[in-house]
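Anyone up for a design puzzle?
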């Protein structure tokens, strides 16, 4: 068999619709746009969601609630049982956790949770410590220092009355 005798199966290809290329093409003159009107003009289309001046659906439907997601604080979680790698009297902070390969250096804020038991006296200096974790550390003779500083809202000054 020669390659010049090969044919594409019937129906495998579709003819391209070349619009505005004369009467012989079948799609000449108005180029499948009809006669006159907004949609026949160049740039003659409306933006997505436009309903001819009627209040569009995306504005008719009630939008309920709001989101404070942009203000959300995310913490990397650490548990009491992870602190067993530290020696007696050592300080637990972000730098020492990275040294012991318990956290990555890229992790910004760390929260200590209370899963597990602790039998060593440790000094913990982390962003946040849960109530149970604090209780267990102090029971073992250690101390807890939270580095988290809550955001204080500043009250706006009252406008002057003239």
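Challenge accepted. My sequence:
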């Amino acid at each position: 068999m020669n390659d010049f005798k090969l044919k594409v199966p019937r129906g495998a290809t579709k003819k391209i619709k070349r619009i505005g290329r004369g009467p012989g093409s079948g799609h000449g003159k108005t180029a499948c746009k009809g006669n006159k009107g907004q949609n026949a003009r160049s740039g003659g289309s409306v933006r997505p969601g436009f309903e001819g001046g009627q209040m569009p659906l995306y504005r008719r439907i009630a939008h309920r609630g709001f989101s404070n997601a942009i203000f959300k604080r995310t913490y990397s979680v650490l548990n009491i049982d992870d602190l067993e790698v530290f020696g007696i009297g050592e300080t637990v902070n972000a730098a020492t956790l990275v040294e012991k390969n318990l956290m990555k250096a890229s992790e910004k804020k760390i929260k200590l949770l209370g899963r597990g038991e602790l039998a060593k006296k440790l000094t913990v200096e982390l962003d946040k410590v849960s109530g149970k974790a604090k209780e267990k550390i102090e029971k073992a003779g250690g101390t807890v220092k939270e580095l988290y500083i809550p955001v204080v809202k500043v009250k706006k000054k009252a406008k002057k009355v003239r």
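A detail worth pointing out: The chain has a mean pLDDT of 89.
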